[in-house]
Amino acid sequence: MLDAYPENRLALALLWAFSALVLAFLILPTIVVVPLSFSASDLLEFPPRAYSLRWYENFFGSATWMAALRTSITLGTLTALIAVPSALLACISMNRLGGKTAVTLQGILLTPSVTPGILLAIGLFIVLAVQHLVGTLFGVLVGHVVLAIPVACIVLLPALARFDWNQVQAARSLGASWARAIGGIIVPQLRISLLSAILMAFLTSLDESVISIFVASGQNSTLPKLMFLSLRDQIDPTIAAISTLWTAIVVIVVLFVTLRQKS
Amino acid sequence: MDPALAADARRERRFFLSLSLPALVIVGSAAILPILWIVRQSFLTTAGEYSVGNYEKVLSSGLTWSALLTTLELSIGTLAVCMLLGLPLALALASARPRVANLLMAFIMLPLWTSILVRTYGWLVLLRRDGLVNAVLTGSGLTTEPLPLVYNFTGTLIGMVHYMLPLFVLPVYAAMRDIDPNLTRAAASMGAGLGLAIRTVILPLSAGGIVSGSMIVFIYTLGFFITPAVLGGGKVNPISIRIERTLSTFQDWGAASVLGLLLLVLLALVGVTFWAARLLLTQNKLGVAHA
């Protein structure tokens, strides 16, 4: 876009130098934890003087961290299993109904994504407290599913818009039930988008911290809640190890999703 | 239409509507009901009676107003720094070749997908008194004493800018990328310098993206909790932190609900402002088209 200004070499060089600094700012905190996670020292010295795997051993050897990891993975899986099917059905309904009805439905279903987490968290906390459900897995799960539904809808809506509905009508006119038509035609054709939606829903739950902080407790503390609590108390290098593993998983998932979508 | 066909069409519509039911029930009971419950709770005293006592208590407290001020300072500060850093970055990306731009997008997408706790931890490590940033600053002789960069407003702002910058850059970059390059070429051929072309061609044409990006920054930052809680070190207390303290330390559900509603009102005000800004933008565009 700026190719019309080849003579402003200095200005363009400055623009790029500045942008390079901003990009460095963006990835610095993610990168810096990687060498620290392999440090042999209790101190967060940079660069580490000696390397070891002790913080990884610390993480995998700790009953508390492992319980939190299990809780988070269970929650993520259940969240994806509940959020994606209900989002798929809702997207089919929005796709078919169209017009004002679809806009209204979309408005309602996307509300959680524009509501501050803290507001959902205290609302959910109070409602669950009245039902004596604070601290249960169920309470956190409900909160995570609500956040994952908009995420799944955002992935599935455009995919359904590209889907040729005539195929379903053909199947229906040949006698297929709705369940058969959805399960046998829509699901297989949208499988890549559905897989992306499942991964994104899982990540949404894995990454969610505010609702977990308010609603989860004790046995059902999630990984982010435990990380938050230990960040508030002291800077434990175990968190560097968790952070490194976490970033590696996210990079793999995101690469997978983007590469699959391109192909 | 044949009445039998019309009945069929109505039945099909009802069927499609029923497909949204599971999602609607979940969102209704776990997002919309809790927010309505906050409204109800805000009028309930700890004894369980209806009154406006919570409102009187919260709105007459100096802590509430200083929390409100801190919230606005953080949001406006984050937006200002995001513009300062994000507009040049988006411009550079939009003027790069597509292959280069796509590659550089990885630098923006990686933090976007990294857990907020991982990033907050990273900043804690970087900004501590004996952290990497202070080591570089004192080592290079730029400062003699380590600077207080974390457990205060500065640290919180750095963390929040880092969280919001990708979300701000994405819509701005998308808007700038869609500008017809012939327009800047035309500006150049008619003698406009680079600065003038940016001011009168590029920025006005990407205003839509800038407004979207700014709105996203506000929507997210008004309720930010993790970053001020960890990087603020107890000294930075926006509304979100007051809510948490009121709820967990004082167990005062009513007052916490009033604070939550205050946040909602703030959000609604921001929404209306941006809606008006967008309306003004489209009117301006029509004005240009008519001229």
Task: Describe what is shown at a glance.
Chain A is an all-alpha fold.
Radius of gyration of chain A: 23 Å
**DSSP helix fraction of chain A:** over 70%
Q: β content of chain A, as a range?
A: under 5%
Mean pLDDT of chain B: 90
CATH architecture of chain A: Orthogonal Bundle
Total number of domains of chain B: 1
Report the biggest beta sheet of chain A as strand number plus sense, adding barrel if it closes.
none
CATH fold descriptor of chain B: MetI-like fold
For the record, the count of structural domains of chain A works out to 1
Q: How would you classify the helix and strand content of chain B by structural class? A: mainly alpha
- Rg of chain B, please? 25 Å
Beta-strand portion of chain B reads under 5%
Present the secondary structure layout.
The complex is a heterodimer of chains A (263) and B (291).
Chain A: H1 9-37, H2 54-61, H3 63-97, H4 99-114, H5 117-130, H6 137-161, H7 166-173, H8 178-189, H9 191-207, H10 210-215, H11 223-233, H12 238-262
Chain B: H1 3-19, H2 21-42, H3 53-59, H4 62-95, H5 98-113, H6 116-127, H7 132-139, H8 153-177, H9 181-189, H10 194-205, H11 207-222, H12 226-231, H13 239-248, H14 253-290
